[in-house]
Amino acid sequence: MPPAKRNQSVREPRVGFVSLGCPKALVDSERILTQLRAEGYAISPSYEGADLVVVNTCGFIDSAVEESLDAIGEALQENGRVIVTGCLGARKDADGGDVVRRMHPSVLAVTGPHALDEVMSAVHAHLPRPHDPFADLVPAQGIKLTPRHYAYLKISEGCNHHCSFCIIPSMRGRLASRPAGEVMREAESLVKAGVKELLVISQDTSAYGVDLRYRTDFWGGRPLKTRMRELVAALGELGAAQAGGGVWVRLHYVYPYAHVDQVIPLMAQGRILPYLDVPFQHASPRILGLMKRPASAEDNLARIRAWRAICPDITIRSTFIAGFPGETEAEFQELLDFLAEAQLDRVGCFAYSPVEGAAANALPHPVPGEVREERRARLMQLQERISTQRLRARVGTTLRVLVDEVGTQGALARSAADAPEIDGVVHIEDGSHLKSGEFAQVTVVRSDTHDLWARCRARSARPRAPRPLKIKESEISR
User: Are residues 192 and 140 in contact, defined by beta-carbon separation less than 8 angstroms?
Assistant: First the structure.
């Protein structure tokens, strides 16, 4: 064949991709996809059009393991050539064998989490890379799986803690912080690409830089310590410097260490969002000790009061475990009392679920399954009443929101209090003229347990400050 004809007949190799799990796994997927495109691989939207499929798995709790194993099985059935990566790839069964290969022995390769090089080596072995990759086809911010206007910014991998209910350190390894300059350069690239919200994630954001002894790095020709407070301040500075109202910076997975107090003034000054995702997990000191939680001895109620004194508008979300082994009814009541006093804005609760390989499985006095679920339901009923009243206090106020979706019937947006996919939303009834990825000013007209409804133009409501509301003690055990 003449050269021109021969080139036209060559099809670039195509890789299918399935991404499961948490935002940290999503960032791993984005990096793998970016490298695939940089090397000239095409990304197939279907099993049928792919030469092989990469499945990025989750392996934290049993339901996630089941979902991941099902996804691998589906990919094998529909395509037949599958590479597995992610947390499930690092899990072993009771005999020390590979969980993935035990269930699906025909997979091409298995790697653990944050294993870009290993995944690419497996892809190269089973689907040779093209000879003429076009790196300029890859955007500077890489391939993203989130909408264009927000992105997750992972600042570290792994965790140094040994929480008794968790096996993540055994899968993702010890804390490995990214140098501050590297994080800031990625953030700059994302902002230049149009990102309006940076969601800072890690396994333990508060511990950022501990493993590097807070060594000094450089960003924009100036020194910058690899430490939480300095990094967050720099991100806030980057966001504030942008035209059109700046860029939101939202913090997730913040353990309540004392130095977190240094970040709250940045929220009060408007440099970062007044939002903290703090995984308290419980309120009973004894249960927190059994969980081996870091900062378990801290007075979290006092800390919350101090945060709100500095930044009254702060939104605090958290997660809790009900029915942990050995938890008594009195200790569960401690947790309910804590919630009634703390008045957290957003709460998620899980009934304790044994995870293979977790130290908590060996603890005495396991709580029966039906009791665990009943306690979870009681906690969420209390939190729903708290959430309903706290959102009701926002009716009549004016909010700055980031628009996610626009349709003929209005728009969906989020306020500073709403992280994507885990918190509530703001329904803008007259927002069909707005644009996705832009900020808007709206007035809240009504609310429910989780969401707000608003209009771009206030009718007769006058903006007013939110009122602090509390659940009465008599309602705690309802």
Answer: yes
Predicted TM-score of the model (pTM) = 0.77
Q: Hey, what amino acid is at 112?
A: G
Q: Sorting pLDDT into bands at 50, 70 and 90, what band is 388?
A: very high
What is the C-alpha separation between 356 and 423, in angstroms, rounded? 29
Residue 393: which of 448, 455, 468, 456 has the closest Cα?
Answer: 468
Instruction: With beta carbons less than 8 A apart as the criterion, state whether 318 and 347 touch.
Output: yes
Mean pLDDT of 439-445: 96
Find the DSSP H helices in 270-328.
285-291, 300-310
221-249 residue pLDDT tens = 788 999 999 999 999 999 887 766 689 99
Instruction: Say if strands 109-110 and 52-57 run parallel, antiparallel, or are unpaired.
Output: unpaired
Nearest 5 degrees, angle CA 213-CA 214-CA 216? 120
Residue 405 in tokens:
């979706």
Say how far apart CA 478 and CA 471 lie, in whole Å. 11
Residue 381 tokens read as 């009923």
β partners of residue 250: 199
Q: How confident is the model at residue 56 (pLDDT cuts 50, 70, 90)?
A: very high
Percent of the chain that is helix, strand, coil (3-state, to 5)? 35, 20, 45
How does DSSP assign 110-164, residue by residue?
Answer: E--SS-HHHHHHHHHHHSPPPSS--GGGS-TT---SS-TTEEEEE-EE--S---T
